[in-house]
Amino acid sequence: MHQVTTDDRSENEGKADDHKHASIPENEVENRFVNSNETAVARWLAIHDELLRGISHALSNRIATVGAASYMFEHGDVAVEQAVASLRAESERMDQLLQQLRLLPQRLDAAAEPITADDACNSAVKLHAHHGELRDFVCDVTVDPDVYPIWAEPHGFAHALLVALTTAKRNAVNGSRITLRVSGDTNVVRFCVVADEHVVDADAQNEVDASAARWLLTPHGGTARALPHGCELEVPTLLAARRARKG
């Protein structure tokens, strides 16, 4: 973060700045902050609900398949081995869906922990494939080999990444691909999600998405910024978090 110093300002300039800031009522500043947070929360909840509907639909399909397999087995329409194999496969699919579903609840009291970029990206990409309106886009994930583990709260980070995936897919031409590129250094890891083939006009909603991602990441030192056709998350590394704790 860049700091703006006032050491080289004249006394008059300092007084002018004080007067300018004093002219903004305190309650107006507070209202701007609250309204901004409300917009960010609303955006995340809209994405959350769309994903929840998608997973619910997928679970309904799996349950229907189990019911059909059970009916056919009961009436002797399939062999025992075939029925058992079908039920086992559907059980595994439902277990995978439940694992994805467990990522959706918000856990504001949860603590940060070490997370590997590969695991985080794969989980979020699979979950976002259930988005009803944006499921037809393929996401290519590229993780630099020397990327450090990040320090973040797993649910909050996954949610921020889901927001970024939504941004890129919404900016992409129908049927095209998006790219999730992970890079960084010893201090931060950047998750850059962009549309490979994007619509002509930049999406005005990208900044709203970025504000939602920032709201989700800020409690543990992360941030986000809007890109012309996507979103970038920046999260501290485990190494940086350890250095900060040691002072």
Q: Can you tell me about this structure?
A:
The protein has 247 residues and is an alpha+beta fold. The protein has one domain (10-247): Heat Shock Protein 90 (2-Layer Sandwich), CATH 3.30.565.10. The chain is built from seven helices and seven strands, in the order H-H-H-E-H-E-E-H-E-E-H-E-E-H. Strand 6 (223-227) and strand 7 form a beta hairpin. The radius of gyration is 23 Å and the shape is globular.
Fold blueprint:
Blueprint: H1 11-22, H2 26-74, H3 80-101, E1 113-115, H4 117-128, E2 138-143, E3 150-152, H5 154-171, E4 177-184, E5 188-195, H6 206-217, E6 223-227, E7 230-236, H7 238-246
Helix pairs in contact: 2-3, 2-6, 4-5, 5-6
Let me know the average pLDDT. Answer: 84
Radius of gyration equals: 23 Å
What name is given to the CATH topology?
Answer: Heat Shock Protein 90
Structural class: alpha+beta
Task: Give the ordered list of helices and strands.
Answer: HHHEHEEHEEHEEH
Overall geometry comes to globular
If classified by CATH, what would the architecture be? Answer: 2-Layer Sandwich
What is the helix content?
A: 40-55%
Query: What's the level 1 CATH class?
Result: Alpha Beta
Considering the chains and any ligands shown, give keywords for the structure.
247 residues, alpha+beta, 7 strands, 54% helix, 16% strand, disordered N terminus
